[in-house]
Structures are given as structure tokens and as C-alpha cells.
């Protein structure tokens, strides 16, 4: 064992003895005859669906839990009020992992329950169906099925009805029980009709220890002591609004509550002070969405509460009236949390609050249309946050975080359409992807822009009111939007909203709009093809593409006029002079890429370099992102990308830089360790130099805007990465001072300061940061510090840090949250090649590798191998990887090894590819061009 590792863990052990450390444990030219030919939806196994012979109307649910002691078993009973709509001799509901102890069936006669049967339950574990076979035929009418059962709180899963815990101020474990039912997991807490369209009302009561409390969708109706045990109380909640099973929620905990306006927030007692911003954001956002939809939330629900669940990642769930969040998505401490955390909280809250209309008030008829929930929530996550905090310009980030993020994975042959059927629970869970969220949000925003926000809002109001408290399909949305634009020319005259939108919702992928100019006649030939990043395949699908353009003579980037391409190709006359550039897709409102002929690209590049402000910052970001992805798909010379990136030298807006950052990271990963890396470093130096000199790396001016803070972090990260001595010196000085004085740097520069300050950290400083991380009870800060620790350049420090991920061989318990153990590995291999080398050395021990698989499981080990391979650029690095394979033997599955070696070979082959040769030649000549 290395000396530092001994010293490191000795220091931690001493801190434990002294009680200094507290360890928390541990998603134009219209052809009227063109009709879309859409492939039929894929076949699914409908045997997983519930029969339609009966439907629920109400559930009365009672649960009893002793989670205050950490116990997992719970007892439950449910009375399912149902209507038989077709005569049947069985009642079929969903069930997963619940043990049924009794069942009684009653017929409702004159509002009196008459027992008619004690049906025998038959459980189909594969299909998660529970059949109650009756002794007689049930006629059409009302019935009540009372079921008693036992279950266990999930321990290794954060879905269904699950257990979590945190550490209180006395370093004791405090347990809680919470729920996450979407999409198919209400059946893990009570037998039910667990399909979204089968809505009902709910009455919930929970028996729990008197030192705990319970919260649910509705306000508390009564809190009474239990007769059999005075240590327990029963909390009963008011009858709910009619809703889907997946929107039911309840939490049993010792949390505290704060209020703001008409809103509530719940959190563990030692974090309740970190809820102020979320309360404010919730109140502001709900007010804005009430005004925007012209439908008040409080017309349907009496309260809205938010609750922070420990060790639940950074996700959230829109349960009607009780929105659940992982702590990093809700808790904000201005002393330690960054501007990114605050932005994330604002947009996540707006996302979940948008669901109160899109998903809760109106629910998707089936998961095939999940974009009706998630697409709207994604759009209004940013637009709603923008309405609440217009000064933060959140919709600028929509372009980066949503639209451009969606275009990447949606450019593969394997992607699916927005409408896509599913039946099994795993298939349904798979629908919650970037198509459902980012793509759908982008497509909806495109049509919001084209139809005009006022028309769009009118259509949404019609949609929401016509389907309130019920389910909807895409046709319901199309019909409502059509009514809103009646008599208005927003779409091609011969088409309907349904036809236009279905060309996007029923087709996989998206188009590239090709613009070829005839510079003599001033004509354009527009054409469309499906954009695929890795291949070229014929496609006869026609997207109905709305477009607009700006040119050098009239650089109008307003979103006020749209034309349509509704055929594969069309000839269009424009007035742009031959010596002037033109740009399609103003402000990148449309969900597609645009490619131009070489002459137009050259004019755009020249303008971007000389006067970037002549082009809207959205379009500057679009041009860089489109060019980069078109070049990777062999549709554009990569030299265009490299020249276009030089425009960043004089660009002080974050959006183009963020788009450029993707290309620069791509090149960094290809070139690091190779003969052309030095040329790349000089290239980046010329891009960031002007901006870097205007920045203060380690301090923050409170007048800086959100985008300025994003830009500062991006530029200073590159400066330190490529070795600016001033950047490295300043970050180390600030880091050392923070450790020495036991203070914190400003959170908005903490990511860069802690990471690059760690490069020269002494062992004592490393231990101090490690202790600071474990002392922190703020999840977002803990993640930031874990990432910073992974930035160390000391092999001994990294080795000791990696050992904590498995708690191996140190004689003390290393208490991470479970997700943090994997984060340690990710932090080390993501930070630098030194980290990769340290990880290889760490795993180059059969026993250590075996322990890692034991503690973190095989998929984590496999992903680590893939990550190492992706960062292998030289023969020496490949030899290190091969040595690792020899050491771990069969612990690395054959397919994982094979895939890793293919990745490495792909890295090597890139240098002899056309793209690699173009990059190399450019970098070889670039210094001469700059000096000239």
C-alpha cells in the first residue's frame, strides 16, 4: 500500500474518531397531392395490457410502515371501486412483488356493499397481472374489490415504494419511505389498474410512528392515534382529484415544512434552510403558467407541495400536488452551490409544474404518446423559467440544452419516431428518452413559433379544457390547434395541422435542408434528406419544413414570416445579391440542419470572423453546430469547421462558444497525446486569448449575467487545460487559501478553482478537500468536490481516492451514497489522462478488480473499460489497456474487450481518415497563417 494511501486513510480515521466527519450514505413550394407514407407502428405484445371489461372509479388505500426503524416490510389494504362494463368472470389488475393475503368482492346495491365472492388471486409475474377469478359471471354494474397484502420497500431501486435515508446532525441514520410510480410502478405499492387512461380518485391513509409525518397529493384530513399502539398515528388525506395511478404519491419521513404564498416545501431538518429559492421559484413559475395557460392550477387542486428526497439523484416527478425531487434538483445553498445548480433548479421546477397541466390535468392516452407529456414539459421547463426570471435568458439555453442536444442522438438509424408504441414495462420505460423530451420539446417549440404564440396558447387552452381530467391522443392536440388558426394562413393552404405535424411526429429522425444557390439567376434549389450522422441511406419521407431566411442586405432575424418546403425539392427565387451571404432557419427555430454550397459557407465564415455581431447569436451557434455535424457526416469539408471556429476569437456570447466547445472537445479527444496536439493547443490559445484576458478566473462580479458566468467557466477551463501558467497559478493560490483558511471560493468559480487547484495539491490539501466533501450535506456540493478530487495529478492521491469507491482494505467504513461510488470512478477517468493511468494501475490487480465488480457490479466495470478505451490514443496507452485485460482475465467479458479494442482502433484510424488528414494539415499551417 502506498505511503500516501496509508497517511490518507489514517487522517480520515483520526477525523472519524474525533467526530469531525459525517458520512452520508450512499433523465416553400406546396404540392397538394403529396401525402405521407408512414411505416406502421411496430407490433407489441398486447398481452401485457389490461382487459377492458372493468374500469376503476376510486381507490381507498391504507398502508402501515415502520420505516422510522429502517424496516422495509409494509402492510397494505386497498378497496378498488370499479365498474364492470362487459360481463366477465374475472377482474384483472396489475401487481408487482406484492403478496396477496386476502380478497373479498362486493356488489354495490343501493349504495350498500354486499359480499358476493372471495376470489382466488392468480399472479402472472412476467406480465405483472393479477387475476381474481370469480365463482360467477359478473354483470354490468358497480363493485368493490377489497385486497389485503404485504410488501417490501425497495432498497436498491428508486422506484415504486422505496426506502432512503440521510444523516442527521448527530450523524445518525434517519430513514424515510417515498414513491416514484411513473410509468408502471404504482403496482409495487398497491394492486391497481396501472394504465394512464384508467383514471380514478384516491383516498389514502398511512399509519406511521408518531415522530414521523406523512404527506401526499392532497392535504391532511385527519391525524389520529391508533388504538392498538399509542406510539403510532394514522394520517388520512382528503379525497383526491381524478387522476392516473402513476401520479399518486406519498412520503413518510421526519421532514420539516416551509410555506411561501400558497405553496409548501418539505425537506430533511438539516437542509430545510436550503429551500428558499425553490419556494420562490415555485411560486413565481406557477403564477406565470397560470397566466400563460389561462387555466388556474387551483381550479383543480387545493395545494402544491415540493419535497426533496435524499440520495435520489437529480431527477424529479410531477405527482399532482406533491412534486418529488432529488435533492440537487431542489436544494440551493448560495454559499456552496453554483449558478448551474440554480439554473437547473429553476428549469426542473418549471418542467414539473408544466406537467400539472400537460400530463396531470390532461394525460396521455397511452405511453405511445408520451411526448404529449414530456415534450410540453421540456419546452415549458425553459419557457416557464424564462417567464419567471426573464433577466436570466433561459430560452437562450434552450437552444443548447434541448434543441442541439436532441439533434445528436436523433441522427442515428436506430432512433424512433415521437409516436412509438410499447407494451412491456421495460419497453415503456425505454420511451423516456431524448425523443420524448428534447426532440419533442424542440418540435413543439418550432410549431409554437410558426403558428405564433397567441394562436398556440389559444389552441393549448382548447386542448386542455376539452380533455381536462381525461386522456388525450395527438389528434386531440391537432384538432385544438387547427381551431385556433381557423381562417389564418399559418400553414400551407391545402393542409391541416394534423398533416403538417404528423410529418414530424410519425417519422424517425429529422431532415437536413440543402440550399444550393444559382448566383447568376438568384434562384435557390432547396432539397431535403434525412440527416444521418454515420451513413447515407435513401429516404422517401417528406417533412413539411417551415423555413425563413436572412441575408447580408437585410439581416433581419425576427421570427415573423415563414415559408414551407413540402416536397423533396423545389426551386425558389430570392433577391439575394451574389456577393451577399444568406442564412436559413432564423434563430434556429426549426428542428433541422441546414447545409449550403461552398461559396455561401465561405461568405458566412468570413462574416463570422470579421463581424460576428452581424449574425444573430442563435444563428452563430447554429452555423457552428450544423457545420461540425455535417462535416462529421461527410457532408461538408471539415476545413469549414476549423475556419468557422476561428470566429470565436472575437465572439463574447456564450451560445456560439458552447457550440464550438463541442467541436473543440472532439478534437482534443482525438489529438491528445499525438504529434498534432501541440498545434491544437496553439489553435485553442488563439481562440481564447482575447476573451481570457478580460476575465477574472477566481473572482465573481455579482453584475455578471448567467451567460457570462457560463462563458467564464468555459474559457477558464480551456486556459487551464492547455497550460496557461497564470490560470494554473491563480487557481492553485485560491485553492490553497481556501484549504488553509477553511473557507470556500465563490461557488460560481468553484468548478475551475477546485479542479485545477487540485493539480498541485499536497497530500494534506487533498485530505482536507476529501474531509470537506464528506462533511458536506449538500448533494450538489458533494458532487462538485468528488469531481475536483478526481482532478488530482498525483497517482498516489488518485489511488487512495479510487480505493474509497469500494471501501477496500482500510479498516474503516467509507460511507458514500451509492451513486457517488460510481461518480468517483467517472471523476478520475474524465479529468485527465493521468486519471486514466491511475485507474488502469488501480485495476491492474485481480483482487481490486474483483472487489470493484462485487461492490459496484459488472455494468459499472464494463463502462469503465469502455471509458478507458475511448481515451486511448497511442500505442503505449493501448499496451496499458492490454495489460489490464491480461490481469483481469474473464472478469472483462469477451464482448466488452472486443468493443474496447474496436474503439481504440477507431481512434487510431481517425488520423488516416479524410477528416483526420484535413485537421492535421490545417494545424500544421495554422501558426503560419496567424503570424502572416
TrEMBL record:
Topology of the protein relative to the lipid bilayer: Lipid-anchor; GPI-anchor; Single-pass type II membrane protein
UniProt: Zn(2+) binding residues: 351, 355, 374
Top-level class of the enzyme under EC nomenclature: hydrolase
Keywords: Aminopeptidase, Cell membrane, Disulfide bond, Glycoprotein, GPI-anchor, Hydrolase, Lipoprotein, Membrane, Metal-binding, Metalloprotease, Protease, Signal, Signal-anchor, Transmembrane, Transmembrane helix, Zinc
SUPFAM superfamilies to which the protein is assigned, alphabetical: Leukotriene A4 hydrolase N-terminal domain, Metalloproteases ('zincins'), catalytic domain
GO biological process, one term: proteolysis
Reaction catalysis annotation: Release of an N-terminal amino acid, Xaa-|-Yaa- from a peptide, amide or arylamide. Xaa is preferably Ala, but may be most amino acids including Pro (slow action). When a terminal hydrophobic residue is followed by a prolyl residue, the two may be released as an intact Xaa-Pro dipeptide
One Pfam family this sequence matches: Peptidase_M1_N
Free-text remark on how the cofactor is bound: Binds 1 zinc ion per subunit.
CDD domains membership: M1_APN-Q_like
Active site: 352 (proton acceptor)
Residue stretches making up the ERAP1-like C-terminal domain: 581-905
Compartments it resides in: Cell membrane; Membrane
GO molecular function: alanyl aminopeptidase activity; metallopeptidase activity; zinc ion binding
Cofactor requirement: Zn(2+)
EC number: 3.4.11.-
GO CC terms, sorted: plasma membrane; side of membrane
InterPro entries cross-referenced by the UniProt entry: Aminopeptidase_N-like_N (IPR045357), Aminopeptidase_N-like_N_sf (IPR042097), ERAP1-like_C_dom (IPR024571), M1_APN-typ (IPR034016), Peptidase_M1 (IPR001930), Peptidase_M1_aminopeptidases (IPR050344), Peptidase_M1_dom (IPR014782), Peptidase_M4/M1_CTD_sf (IPR027268)
Residue stretches making up the Peptidase M1 membrane alanine aminopeptidase domain: 277-504
Keyword Ribonucleoprotein: no
Family: Belongs to the peptidase M1 family.
Protein name, entry field: Aminopeptidase
Organism: Culex pipiens pipiens
Organism classification: Eukaryota, Metazoa, Ecdysozoa, Arthropoda, Hexapoda
Amino acid at each position: 500500500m502506498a505511503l500516501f494511501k496509508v497517511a490518507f486513510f489514517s487522517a480520515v480515521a483520526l477525523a472519524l474518531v474525533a467526530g469531525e466527519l459525517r458520512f452520508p450514505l450512499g433523465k416553400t413550394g406546396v404540392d397538394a397531392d403529396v401525402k405521407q407514407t408512414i411505416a406502421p407502428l411496430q407490433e407489441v405484445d398486447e398481452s401485457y395490457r389490461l382487459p377492458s371489461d372493468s374500469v376503476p372509479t376510486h381507490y381507498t388505500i391504507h398502508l402501515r410502515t415502520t420505516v422510522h426503524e429502517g424496516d422495509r416490510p409494509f402492510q397494505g389494504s386497498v378497496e378498488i371501486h370499479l365498474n364492470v362494463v362487459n360481463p366477465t368472470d374475472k377482474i384483472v389488475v396489475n401487481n408487482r412483488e406484492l403478496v396477496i393475503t386476502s380478497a373479498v368482492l362486493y356488489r354495490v346495491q343501493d349504495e350498500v356493499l354486499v359480499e358476493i365472492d372471495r376470489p382466488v388471486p392468480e399472479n402472472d409475474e412476467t406480465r405483472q397481472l393479477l387475476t381474481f377469478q370469480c365463482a360467477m359471471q359478473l354483470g354490468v354494474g358497480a363493485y368493490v374489490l377489497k385486497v389485503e397484502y404485504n410488501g417490501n420497500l425497495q432498497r436498491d431501486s428508486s422506484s415504486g415504494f422505496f426506502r432512503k435515508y440521510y444523516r442527521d446532525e448527530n450523524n445518525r441514520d434517519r430513514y424515510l419511505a417515498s414513491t416514484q410510480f411513473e410509468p408502471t410502478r404504482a403496482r409495487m405499492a398497491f394492486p391497481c389498474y396501472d394504465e394512464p387512461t384508467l383514471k380514478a380518485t384516491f383516498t389514502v391513509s398511512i399509519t406511521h410512528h408518531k415522530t414521523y409525518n406523512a404527506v401526499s397529493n392532497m392535504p391532511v384530513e385527519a391525524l389520529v392515534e391508533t388504538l392498538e399502539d399509542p406510539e403510532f398515528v394514522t394520517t388520512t388525506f382528503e379525497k383526491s382529484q381524478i387522476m392516473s395511478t402513476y401520479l399518486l404519491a406519498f412520503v413518510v419521513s421526519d421532514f420539516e415544512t416551509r410555506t411561501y404564498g400558497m405553496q409548501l416545501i418539505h425537506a430533511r431538518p438539516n437542509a430545510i434552510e436550503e429551500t428558499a429559492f425553490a419556494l420562490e421559484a415555485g411560486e413565481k413559475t406557477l403564477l406565470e403558467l397560470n397566466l400563460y395557460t389561462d387555466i388556474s392550477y387551483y381550479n383543480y387542486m387545493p395545494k402544491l407541495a415540493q419535497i426533496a428526497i435524499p440520495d435520489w439523484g437529480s431527477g424529479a416527478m410531477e405527482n399532482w400536488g406533491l412534486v418529488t425531487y432529488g435533492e440537487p434538483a431542489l436544494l440551493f445553498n448560495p454559499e456552496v452551490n453554483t449558478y448551474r445548480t440554480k439554473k437547473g433548479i429553476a428549469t426542473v421546477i418549471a418542467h414539473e409544474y408544466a406537467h400539472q397541466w400537460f400530463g396531470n390535468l390532461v394525460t396521455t392516452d397511452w405511453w405511445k404518446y408520451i411526448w404529449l407529456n414530456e415534450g410540453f414539459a421540456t419546452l415549458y421547463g425553459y419557457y416557464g423559467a424564462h417567464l419567471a426570471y426573464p433577466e436570466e435568458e433561459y430560452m437562450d439555453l434552450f437552444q443548447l440544452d434541448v434543441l442541439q442536444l436532441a439533434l445528436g442522438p436523433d441522427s442515428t438509424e436506430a432512433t424512433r419516431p415521437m409516436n412509438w408504441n410499447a407494451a412491456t414495462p421495460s419497453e415503456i420505460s425505454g420511451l423516456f428518452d431524448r425523443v420524448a423530451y428534447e426532440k419533442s420539446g424542440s418540435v413543439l417549440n418550432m410549431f409554437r413559433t410558426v403558428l405564433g404564440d397567441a394562436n398556440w396558447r389559444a389552441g393549448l387552452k382548447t386542448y386542455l379544457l376539452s380533455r381536462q381530467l381525461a386522456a388525450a391522443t395527438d389528434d386531440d392536440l391537432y384538432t385544438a390547434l387547427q381551431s385556433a388558426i381557423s381562417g389564418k394562413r399559418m400553414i400551407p393552404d391545402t393542409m391541416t395541422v394534423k398533416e403538417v405535424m404528423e410529418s414530424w411526429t410519425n417519422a424517425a429522425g429529422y431532415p437536413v435542408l440543402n440550399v444550393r444557390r444559382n448566383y447568376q439567376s438568384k434562384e435557390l434549389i432547396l432539397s431535403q434528406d434525412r440527416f444521418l450522422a454515420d451513413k447515407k441511406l435513401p429516404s422517401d419521407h417528406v417533412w413539411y419544413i417551415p423555413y425563413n431566411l436572412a441575408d447580408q442586405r437585410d439581416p433581419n432575424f425576427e421570427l415573423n414570416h415563414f415559408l414551407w418546403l413540402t416536397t423533396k425539392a423545389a426551386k425558389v427565387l430570392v433577391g439575394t445579391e451574389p456577393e451577399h451571404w444568406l442564412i436559413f432557419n432564423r434563430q434556429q427555430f426549426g428542428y433541422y440542419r441546414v447545409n449550403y454550397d461552398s461559396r455561401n459557407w465561405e461568405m458566412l465564415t468570413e462574416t463570422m470572423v470579421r463581424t460576428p455581431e452581424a449574425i444573430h447569436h442563435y444563428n452563430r451557434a447554429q452555423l457552428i453546430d450544423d457545420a461540425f455535424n455535417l462535416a462529421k457526416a461527410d457532408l461538408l469539408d471539415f476545413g469549414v469547421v476549423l475556419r468557422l471556429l476561428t470566429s470565436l476569437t472575437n465572439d463574447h456570447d456564450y451560445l456560439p462558444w458552447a457550440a464550438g466547445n463541442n467541436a473543440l472537445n472532439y478534437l482534443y479527444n482525438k489529438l491528445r497525446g499525438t504529434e498534432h496536439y501541440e498545434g491544437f493547443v496553439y489553435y485553442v490559445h488563439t481562440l481564447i486569448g482575447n476573451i481570457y484576458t478580460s476575465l477574472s478566473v477566481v473572482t465573481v462580479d455579482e453584475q455578471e449575467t448567467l451567460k457570462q458566468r457560463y462563458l467564464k467557466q468555459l474559457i477558464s477551463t480551456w486556459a487551464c487545460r492547455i497550460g496557461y501558467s497564470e490560470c494554473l497559478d491563480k487557481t492553485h493560490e485560491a485553492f490553497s487559501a481556501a484549504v488553509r483558511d477553511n473557507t470556500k471560493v465563490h461557488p460560481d468559480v468553484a468548478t475551475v478553482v477546485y479542479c485545477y487547484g487540485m493539480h498541485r495539491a499536497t497530500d494534506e490539501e487533498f485530505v482536507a478537500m476529501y474531509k470537506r466533501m464528506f462533511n458536506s450535506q449538500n448533494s450538489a456540493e458533494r458532487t462538485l468536490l468528488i469531481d475536483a478530487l478526481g482532478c488530482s495529478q498525483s497517482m498516489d492521491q488518485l489511488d487512495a481516492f479510487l480505493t474509497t469507491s469500494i471501501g477496500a482494505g482500510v479498516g474503516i467504513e467509507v460511507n458514500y451514497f451509492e451513486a457517488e461510488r460510481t461518480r468517483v470512478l467517472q471523476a478520475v477517468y474524465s479529468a485527465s489522462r493521468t486519471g486514466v493511468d491511475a485507474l488502469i494501475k488501480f485495476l491492474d490487480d485481480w483482487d481490486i478488480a474483483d472487489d470493484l465488480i462485487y461492490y459496484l457490479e459488472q455494468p459499472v466495470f464494463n463502462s469503465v473499460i469502455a471509458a478507458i478505451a475511448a481515451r486511448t490514443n497511442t500505442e503505449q496507452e493501448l499496451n496499458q489497456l492490454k495489460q489490464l485485460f491480461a490481469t483481469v482475465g474473464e472478469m472483462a467479458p469477451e464482448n466488452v474487450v472486443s468493443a474496447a479494442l474496436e474503439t481504440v482502433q477507431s481512434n487510431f484510424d481517425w488520423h488516416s481518415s479524410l477528416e483526420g488528414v484535413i485537421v492535421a494539415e490545417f494545424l500544421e499551417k495554422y501558426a503560419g497563417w496567424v503570424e502572416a
